[in-house]
């Protein structure tokens, strides 16, 4: 269902809608959670996911300069890899995290972020290995359990993934990133109504961040409620960015007839549930 897009804006939209299931899990592991999704410099505390394309390019360039000076700095390297990923350069993001994983082979946060980069490049088996190596069975980390679930989801192992999401929720009840990831699991399956239920629950949590609310906007938009989706998105993005994202979503669904396909899948699942 994901499509390849020709520019940074559309790449980021599709990544948010379908492929960035990992964003709220792997990137949030341990101490890196404030790094990959929070401030990128002392003077700029704007989250990466709310930046315009030009802002993201500038942030990535600044982080690249810092990384060149000290490539083994975990904070800088993890931030740089996250920015590269958001900026559409998954290969370089993976190269940065691979080098860091070599420098810190037993660091849970590094291994978790490395797993995210591997998954973003479609290397799911290796990603699972990295995340599982980061986990400590006697003291399980809910972020890693959710991250493993997200990887399994992208591999098509829905039942196993959802079991892990629920394990993560047992460890961290009502955690918005887990609820959002579980919602994305249903998006990937085409069950948009169930997805929206989890997304709304996630967005209502006090600790919900921008990614969670943007995911809700996209799920609403995928159901054709574009005005409502734009209103939600405008709370996180500039009005111009929100309008551009929704306009692209309209175009994507119209061009590929994806909306009709998703709607039919949703109807079929509803019928099956009542039989």
From TrEMBL:
Residues 1-23 form the signal peptide. Keywords: Repeat, Signal, TPR repeat. TPR repeats lie at residues 142-175. One of its GO terms (molecular function) is identical protein binding. The keyword Repeat applies. Pfam families: TPR_11, TPR_4. This is Tetratricopeptide repeat protein.
């Amino acid at each position: 269902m994901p499509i390849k897009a020709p520019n940074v804006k559309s790449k980021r939209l599709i990544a948010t809608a379908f492929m960035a299931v990992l964003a709220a899990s792997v990137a949030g592991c341990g101490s890196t959670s404030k790094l990959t999704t929070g401030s990128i410099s002392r003077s700029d505390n704007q989250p990466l996911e709310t930046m315009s394309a030009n802002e993201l390019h500038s942030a990535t360039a600044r982080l690249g300069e810092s990384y060149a000076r000290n490539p083994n700095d975990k904070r800088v390297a993890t931030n740089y890899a996250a920015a590269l990923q958001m900026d559409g350069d998954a290969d370089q993001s993976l190269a940065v995290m691979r080098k860091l994983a070599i420098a810190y082979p037993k660091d849970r946060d590094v291994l978790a972020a490395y797993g995210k980069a591997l998954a973003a490049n479609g290397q799911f088996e290796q990603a699972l290995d990295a995340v599982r190596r980061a986990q400590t069975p006697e003291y399980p980390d809910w972020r890693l359990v959710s991250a493993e679930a997200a990887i399994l989801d992208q591999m098509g192992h829905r039942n196993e993934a959802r079991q892990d999401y629920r394990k993560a929720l047992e460890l961290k009840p009502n955690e918005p990133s887990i609820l959002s990831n579980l919602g994305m699991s249903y998006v990937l399956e085409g069950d948009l109504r169930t997805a929206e239920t989890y997304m709304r629950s996630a967005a209502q949590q006090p600790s919900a961040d921008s990614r969670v609310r943007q995911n809700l906007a996209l799920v609403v938009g995928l159901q054709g409620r574009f005005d409502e989706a734009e209103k939600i998105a405008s709370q996180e993005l500039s009005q111009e960015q929100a309008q551009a994202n929704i306009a692209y979503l309209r175009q994507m669904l119209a061009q590929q007839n994806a909306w009709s396909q998703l709607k039919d899948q949703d109807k079929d699942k509803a019928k099956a549930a009542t039989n």
